[in-house]
Write a structure and sequence with these properties.
By secondary structure, the chain is mainly α. It is built from 2 helices and no strands.
Length: about 60
């Protein structure tokens, strides 16, 4: 039981050492992730569309 309390105490101490990002940094990083996700999604969607059309032409559907 003492180990559990020690674990939570040490965890709380470690969390006080964390340097949390500012609100501005968090928004910028979230926007970057969203933009990169959209770009990669569009690329993969386009590639899938092209390969599907190519396979249709090859197979004669």
């Amino acid at each position: 039981m003492n180990k559990i309390f020690s674990y939570f105490k040490e965890s709380k101490e470690e969390l006080t050492k964390v340097v949390w990002p500012t609100k501005k940094q968090t928004i910028e990083m979230a926007l970057a992730v969203a933009i990169i996700t959209i770009i990669i999604g569009a690329y993969l969607g386009g590639l899938d569309f092209i390969l599907t059309k190519l396979m249709s032409l090859i197979l004669g559907d």
